[in-house]
Design brief:
heterotrimer; A alpha/beta (about 500); B alpha+beta (about 100); C alpha+beta (about 475); B: about 100 residues; alpha+beta; two-stranded antiparallel sheet; 3 strands; about 30% helix; about 10% strand; C: about 475 residues; Arc Repressor Mutant, subunit A; 9-stranded mixed beta sheet; 3-stranded antiparallel beta sheet; 15 helices; about 20% strand
Chain lengths: ~500, ~100, ~475
């Protein structure tokens, strides 16, 4: 039951070899058994899930099979779900029950999906380790060889990644502002894609940094990710930044192969401090693609090394404004004060964790009078140069190949001494957010301690099909079949 | 550009986040660490570069002038920490 | 004549700039689909977007954009084909998102101008710096509870046009004329109803004072003044305060103030004591607003005739004096009413009746042009009876009063009350003879050279004929019999 992929579960459901209710119960059982240990889900939704599974079975019985009929998923707790508490892993939203359903989750429900629960994350998606959640850290289902200490699943979508890796769900939604899908996918040995900015509606997703946030799926195969993204994506008139472009058959693209594709290898990603095993994995990925008929091209992204610093101006600036609405007046936590300003200050001091407060402070500062030009305006200009680099590179190639993250999963509590050390986790993923281009992480191998490592495929705007084709080629070549220590059915 | 304690307090005040005195020094160190690291952007020549303001390279779509929303007072007020009749309530504001 | 404040050190010139917030006429809000109607029960015209719930996003209303473009065109202003929305960040109870979506750096409308007319008949061009679109805030009610303020978000997110003038105004009168003219233009355009009582037009007034020939001194902003009269009073009060501060050796601090109309003074706003740092930046939820040139041109072609053009036409086509034309075009409905009356008739006479008798009737009855007791067609009918000699001008006044009272048309009243003018020369001759016979003494005086008694005889004849005599024929008969 736990070895299904979405594709194989879908076939089994349609062939009546398994029912949606059986599938859902098996996953609810796995959650009951493992979630106390992993803390991957903040809220479990057994009643909702059972009702949705029953409805899926009824639809299947009528011969009405939708793309995801009966497929049990975990939903990052940043997506508003109608009538189901949505916390963004923050104290400030702990009591919040949205009276509306985000567009992406509504699309998934329309496709017949079953929601098992709301997945843990870094508070307001700000983090790379899931350590900043107000509901406690998530434990990575993987452990180092001969070492049982808990590792982080990455972040911010750490709960989603851990749930899929540990087989608590067949797939999950995530959001990616600077790497929040790709880095946890890499840390947990699964596949995740951040599509092109505008591909998925942001309506109903708790905003972190509006010009960077983009929803995407996690799954255990590239094809499964393609199936999920197909259901999540689409133009939404309620989101002004949503692109009015058709949603192609992403799953079909997975079988295209890479013969004749030009794959760019950005030389600036090869930083001096790159771990040898990351470098080796990257070379292995290049070799696999070349063997399958791709042409490997050296490309230059000269401004990419400034992407992370740019990100830490743009994202906090937008966040400082986006999070102003959490003021204790209309929803969420309130801590009273003698006057309105005290109420605001008390509420926001008590409601936001340290990392969120830090980023709000940075964002407030870089936008403040006298500093805007030096920080924010300059960052926007560098951002334009980063986009220009990618545009130029894609004149010479069809996709780019890079490592996803500079390391494998690290221990809970590591890299916590200095915020900048933690920020460096996103050094390879952030450029794609700055440019709005799609990026996928696919597991490609293990490090010396037996932890999974991912490779990242970056594509042209709205060309996720090529990204899936390249990702699937790496997946086939890597034949990654190692399983995490903590998993259902183990 | 390095933040002094007064600036840290002023930013916290602008952001409406209460800051106890003991919280100022560590925060000052962290913020200065981040800002110092960010200063690498000063190396970049941005002369003549148009700033990129958003994630999408499109023009704004406009909607029709139709009333399609509202009339959901109870849903709007349902999450309010202090609901007074049909209003949100806050400590009295003096103008 | 220059308006000045007389201080102990001499005359002070007053420098005024106005920021008008005009509520856009639209069905739905600027960035949400909630309704905009005035006076709805609290928090009923609120969407989750307006209340800034998590994950909610703005989508712009095309009509609000069109209204801003129309207004810009009506102010002879430059339309910016590319504009942008910024966030203005500040915390306030009636600002749900913690920021207002506005246009800071790149407004939709650039420089324009408004011509104002002053009481002495002179005109002056007042520069308009810019017009931009932004969201209104909600409403805080401070008088419902002893320790709490109540928040109603019905108005939150309604589209406003902020129209900023150059500091070209020099007196309360000019400020009043500017506001009235701006309101007239927007009403013609149908872009704002200009109703200051309902808050759909509000003004922030920037005031400074200076000695003649000086550079500008520090200004203060008097916020949210909600009637033209109060704007004029606030300017005077604030200017006098500033003169007193300067003359006492003090310094005027740049600050935000409120006008207390009950006490006739301005006072500092306590809640704005904090120096504001709005941290404007481009709203990442919205993309640049790019207008199609052809669409703007189409909006331009569909604009109505505006007051300045209409006044010029009234002077040219109907031969009206500037003052009369100005009065008639102040409201489009009045201008339309007038044109209906004037069409095919004596246009000057029509103007006199509308401005004189009709406006007097409005004052008396408390009604206005929208619910006029006498329709334009009915007033035209009255003028027709005068033109064809059915009634004379004196009787017409009585007929008009009867029309106001009864709502009947002129012909009916003339017929029912037998007010038809007498043109029978026999009857007139008889009346003349009777009057002359009854006033032999006056007749003798007249014959002795007191010719101004002619008017007395006309009056007596008309009186004898109950006012119905044709004045021309009465004159003629009198002249004949007086020899």
């Amino acid at each position: 039951m736990h070895d299904f992929t979405i594709a194989s579960a879908r076939a089994a459901l349609r062939a009546k070899k398994v029912s949606a209710q059986e599938l859902t119960e098996a996953h609810l059982d796995a959650i009951a058994a493992l979630n106390p240990r992993l803390n991957a889900l903040i809220t479990v939704m057994p009643e909702t899930a059972r009702a949705q599974a029953a409805a899926a079975d009824a639809a299947l019985a009528r011969g009405e099979a939708h793309a995801l009929s009966g497929i049990p998923l975990a939903i990052k707790d940043l997506f508003c779900t109608g009538g189901v508490r949505t916390t963004a892993a923050s104290r400030i939203l702990e009591p919040f029950v949205p009276p509306y359903e985000s567009t992406v989750t509504a699309n998934l429900l329309r496709a017949g999906a079953v929601f098992l629960g709301k997945a843990n994350l870094d508070e307001f998606a700000m983090g790379s380790s899931n350590m900043t959640s107000a509901f406690g850290p998530v434990t990575n289902p993987w452990t180092r060889r001969g070492d049982n200490r808990a590792l982080v699943p990455g972040g911010s979508s750490g709960g989603s990644a851990a749930a899929v890796a540990a087989r608590l769900a067949l797939g999950a939604t995530g959001t990616d502002t600077g790497g929040s899908i790709r880095q946890p996918a890499s840390f947990c040995g699964i596949v995740g894609i951040k599509p092109t900015y505008g591909r998925c509606s942001r309506w109903g997703i708790v905003a972190f940094a509006s010009s960077l946030d983009q929803a995407g799926p996690f799954a255990r195969t590239v094809e499964d990710c393609a199936i999920l993204l197909g259901a999540m994506a689409g133009h939404d008139p309620k989101d002004s930044t949503s692109a009015d472009v058709p949603v192609p058959d992403f799953a079909a693209a997975c079988t295209r192969g890479v013969k004749g594709l030009r794959i760019g290898v950005p030389r600036e990603y090869r930083s001096d401090g790159m771990a040898p095993e990351i470098e080796a994995l990257w070379q292995q990925g290049i070799a696999w693609l070349r063997e399958q008929g791709a042409e490997i091209i050296d490309v230059s992204l000269p401004h990419t090394k400034y992407a992370l610093a740019t990100y830490y101006i743009v994202a906090p600036a937008e966040a400082s404004s986006n999070l102003a609405r959490y003021d204790g007046v209309r929803f969420g936590l309130r801590k009273d004060g003698e006057d309105l300003d005290q109420l605001y200050e008390n509420t926001r001091a008590a409601g936001f964790g340290a990392e969120v407060r830090r980023r709000i402070m940075i964002g407030t500062y870089v936008l403040s009078a006298g500093y805007y030009d030096a920080y924010y305006l300059r960052a926007q200009k560098v951002r334009a140069l980063i986009l220009r680099d990618f545009t130029e590179a894609f004149r010479h190639c069809d996709a780019l190949l890079t490592p996803t993250a500079p390391s494998a999963a690290f221990g809970q509590g590591e890299k916590m001494d200095d915020p900048v050390t933690m920020y460096l986790n996103d050094v390879f993923t952030v450029p794609a957010n700055m440019a709005g281009i799609p990026g996928l992480s696919v597991p490609a191998g293990l490090d010396a301690q037996g932890l999974p490592l991912g490779l990242q495929v970056l594509g042209k705007p709205f060309d996720e099909e090529t990204v899936f084709a390249v990702g699937a080629a790496i997946e086939r070549a890597a034949a990654f079949n190692v399983l995490p220590a903590i998993r259902a059915g183990a | 550009m390095s933040l002094d304690p007064a600036t840290v307090r002023r930013i916290a005040r602008l952001a409406r986040i209460r800051l106890d005195d003991a919280e100022v020094p560590p925060l000052q160190t962290e913020l200065n660490g981040i800002l110092g690291w960010i200063e690498q952007l000063n190396e970049v020549n941005v002369e003549g570069v148009e700033p990129l303001t958003g994630g999408a390279q499109m023009a704004l779509k406009m909607r029709a002038d139709e009333v399609t929303d509202g009339n959901i007072r109870d849903a709007v007020l349902a999450n309010a920490p202090d609901r007074a009749g049909d209003y949100f309530a806050v400590p009295k504001v003096v103008e | 004549m220059t308006y000045t404040i007389e201080g102990t050190t001499g005359a002070w010139e007053v420098v005024i700039g106005l920021e008008v917030h005009a509520q856009v006429i639209s069905n739905a809000k600027l960035f949400s689909g909630a309704a905009t109607a005035f006076g709805a029960p609290p928090n009923t015209q609120v969407s989750f977007v307006d209340a800034a719930f998590p994950g909610m996003l703005p989508v712009i209303n095309r009509e609000c954009v069109a209204q801003a473009v129309r207004t810009g065109l009506g102010l002879n202003a430059h339309i910016n084909l590319v504009s942008r929305f910024d966030r203005k960040n500040y915390f306030y109870a009636d600002l749900p998102a913690g920021y207002q979506i506005s246009q800071y750096q790149h407004p939709i409308v650039g420089a324009g101008s408004i011509e104002i007319e002053l009481a002495d008949g002179s005109t002056k061009d007042i520069g308009v710096t810019r017009l931009h679109l932004e969201q209104d805030a909600g409403k805080s009610l401070h008088d419902q509870h002893p320790t709490k303020s109540y928040i109603d978000l019905n108005r939150a997110g309604v589209a406003l046009m902020e129209i900023v003038s150059e500091p070209d105004l020099r007196s309360p009168e000019e400020a009043g004329a500017y506001l009235r003219k701006l309101r007239t233009i927007m009403r013609y355009l149908g872009t704002c109803d200009g109703n200051m009582e309902e808050g759909s037009m509000r003004a922030d007034v920037n005031v400074s004072v200076r000695k003649h020939g000086e550079a500008f001194r520090t200004r203060c902003e008097v916020k949210n003044v909600n009637s033209i009269r109060f704007v004029m009073q606030a300017i005077e009060a604030e200017a006098k305060r500033q003169v007193a501060v300067w003359e006492d050796g003090g310094t005027v601090e740049q600050e935000t103030r409120l006008y207390d109309s009950a006490r006739g003074v301005t006072r500092s706003m306590r809640s704005k004591e904090d120096a504001h740092d709005y941290r404007y930046f481009p709203d990442p939820d919205l993309l640049p607003l790019v207008l199609d040139e052809a669409w703007v041109a189409e909006l331009g072609r569909s604009l109505p005739e505006l007051p300045d053009a209409k006044r010029a036409r009234f002077m040219r086509e109907y031969g009206l004096p500037a003052y009369d034309a100005g009065v008639l075009v102040a409201e489009q409905t009045t201008a339309d009413f007038y044109e209906t009356v004037a069409k095919g008739r004596d246009a000057k006479l029509a103007a006199n009746w509308v401005i004189g008798d009709l406006f007097a009737a409005f004052n008396r009855t408390g009604r206005g042009i929208e619910d006029s007791p006498v329709s334009a067609a009915a007033l035209g009918g009255l003028l027709d009876l005068m033109a064809d000699g059915t009634i004379n001008g004196r009787i017409a006044k009585d007929v008009f009063e009867a029309m106001v009272e009864t709502g009947a048309d002129a012909a009916t009243i003339v017929a029912q009350r037998g007010l038809r003018q007498v043109t029978d020369t026999g009857a007139i001759d008889a009346a003349v003879a009777q009057v002359l016979a009854a006033n032999a003494d006056k007749l003798a005086e007249y014959k002795a050279g007191k010719e101004k008694l002619f008017g007395f005889f006309v009056g007596q004849v008309m009186k004898a004929m109950a006012g119905k005599g044709n004045p021309a024929l009465v004159n003629e008969a009198l002249k004949k019999q007086l020899g």
